[in-house]
Amino acid sequence: MPFGERSPWRFRGSPLALEWVAGGWHLRVVQPYRATKLYRCPGCDQEIFPRTLHVVVWPEGNPEQRRHWHRSCWERRYAELERARELEQRAGPSKKS
To answer: What is the pTM of this model?
Structure first.
């Protein structure tokens, strides 16, 4: 993970946590010692148990839509979103009738 002026990774929030802001998404890493509740991952529909490293993700400007994900599930979903965005950009603006 590169850190620096141009890196999307920053320490933010309260409690202070590693957060990534890029591509229209906010991602916050939840360390095991901070993970105290049971959540359900929207990527695999499996439980995220307390004391499990995971991420909280929400679309930029919509923190009420935040969801807890297994890291690998979010990485897979984000890759899908990026591929779809690239395909959309290659296709150009859609023509409406």
So the answer is: 0.76
